[in-house]
Specification:
Elements (H helix, E strand, L loop, with lengths): L1 E2 L5 E8 L4 E4 L1 E2 L2 E4 L1 E4 L7 E8 L7 E8 L8 E11 L13 E2 L3 E7 L10 H4 L2 E6 L2 H5 L19 E8 L9 E13 L7 E2 L4 E2 L8 E9 L9 E2 L2 E2 L3 E2 L7 H4 L4 E7 L12 E11 L12 H7 L21 H4 L7 E8 L30 H40 L24
Antiparallel strand pairs: 1-2, 2-8, 3-9, 4-5, 6-9, 7-8, 9-10, 9-11, 12-13, 13-21, 14-17, 14-22, 15-16, 18-19, 20-21, 22-23
Length: 440
């Protein structure tokens, strides 16, 4: 088994028919088809196909493959495979199109343990630092002398606070000689199971730049230009803050070689299950003599907008790309610039989820989501209301039409009644002169 370039699970397996015949994907004489299911991933569907088969009905060995129709991060589970056996008579010779009789499916299980993990950011970009996501504030503020154990693998429930921490690798034993300073934090989720990676050589920039492979992308923290941050997703706030902006986090701020941030997890639960979030941080690591613990470097994308208002169209993307297509943010990352980056997956525990669907689409940070959650109940209600209004309007128009027809018939009867009178004398009417008010 493997993961293909689209992040989908591909499983190859072989079978040996212990009967006179072979397995088939489908047969015209039977409504049953071969299929793959997984109880641990009920929404995941598969496409199974026969790759090759020995040209015989005498217990042939056959090679099969099945591919998931879309990608998920964790494929671990028990997969049930159902194959349709087709028995052949002993006096029938094998043909390319089998002549056989389909039987009830044969079922067997495959236990698979397989997770997609983001490729670790190369040491040349991480600058020998560690990035952790923690669920406990006390651990976030600690000096790390007792270690972080399994706490860095915590799954966050809706309403939890996610505590991020970046620190110089303690194995380096650099002591107080270096200062770590977080500059920007991005949040993104991939489309169709894509896992963001940072590998500029392959034009992969994680959450730093717009990409068709990203479904949502937000810059939730910018130390130099906080006014450019995305504050909300839909109607729910990220409430993202750097440790230096949290008066209760001074214990972390004062630690050499460490820095942190925090955000609330509620906004992340607005996407459907199966969508995975990733946090991508940019930070600087400098010697204490050259470190600036205060305001960070001005944002590259900010300069790209304000450098020359007359030369840059307003419709241009926020991120100015260089001639080779590499974002300026990525060009600033590297050991020679003392600027590093790292990406972590955000594990969410959806068992206590309150809002299963996305109610509002966010256009924060100039990114328009490319996927809508179809089948929303609000859409159904809107269609129902429109239908009712149309029906009421049609009824009103019908009543008005009936009233007009009745009145027209009544007026016609009134005008025809004098003509049907039996009197033969002409009717005389006297019209007085307009300039004489007396009667004659």
């Amino acid at each position: 088994m493997r993961i293909n370039e689209h992040g989908r699970l591909v499983v190859n397996f072989r079978t040996e028919a212990r009967f006179h015949g072979l397995f088939v994907t489908a047969h015209s004489a039977s409504p049953m088809t071969s299929m793959v299911m997984c109880a641990d991933h009920p929404g995941l569907t598969f496409n199974i196909s026969l790759v090759r088969s020995e040209p015989t009905y005498n217990q042939p060995v056959q090679q099969w493959t099945f591919i998931s129709d879309f990608a998920v991060r964790d494929y671990t589970g028990t997969y049930t495979v159902k194959l349709v056996p087709c028995t052949a008579s002993f006096n029938v010779e094998y043909t390319f199109r089998p002549v056989c009789h389909p039987r009830d499916p044969v079922t067997f299980d495959l236990d698979i343990r397989f997770q997609q993990v983001s490729d670790p950011v190369a040491a040349e970009f991480s600058l020998n630092t560690q990035m952790l996501l923690l669920s406990k504030r006390a651990l976030w503020l600690s000096d790390g002398s007792m270690g972080f154990g399994q706490e860095s693998d915590s799954a966050f429930t809706e309403g939890d606070i996610i505590y991020g921490r970046v620190m110089v690798d303690p194995v380096q034993n650099l002591g107080d000689s270096f200062i770590c300073n977080i500059e920007k934090v991005f949040l993104c989720t991939g489309a169709d199971g894509y896992i963001p990676k940072y590998n500029p050589d392959n034009f992969e920039f994680g959450c730093l730049a717009d990409s068709p492979s990203l479904l949502y992308r937000f810059k939730i923290i910018d130390k130099a230009q906080p006014e450019t941050q995305a504050r909300t997703f839909g109607s729910i706030s990220f409430n993202a803050y750097l440790a230096v902006d949290d008066p209760q986090a001074m214990a972390l701020v004062r630690q050499p070689g460490s820095d942190g941030f925090r955000l609330e997890s509620t906004a992340l639960f607005q996407v459907l299950a199966g969508r995975e979030w990733y946090i991508h941080a940019i930070y600087t690591v400098r010697s204490r003599d050259n470190a600036n613990r205060g305001i960070g470097k001005r944002s590259v994308e900010y300069h790209s907008l304000t450098y020359s208002r007359h030369s840059i169209p307003t419709s241009q993307s926020r991120y100015r790309r260089s001639a080779d297509g590499v974002p300026d943010l990525a060009q600033d990352i590297g050991a020679e610039r003392n600027r590093g980056t790292n990406i972590l997956h955000v594990a969410l525990d959806r068992r206590t989820q309150i809002h299963p669907d996305l109610k509002q689409e966010s256009q924060a940070d100039g990114i328009v989501p490319r996927e809508l959650n179809h089948g929303d109940s609000s859409d159904n209600r809107l269609v129902l209301i429109i239908g009712i209004l149309v029906a009421v309007l049609f009824t009103v128009l019908l009543i008005i039409l009936i009233v007009l027809v009745v009145r027209s018939r009544q007026e016609k009867n009134v005008t025809e009644s004098p003509k049907s009178s039996s009197s033969t004398e002409p009717m005389m009417t006297h019209v007085p002169e307009s300039n004489d008010s007396s009667e004659v």
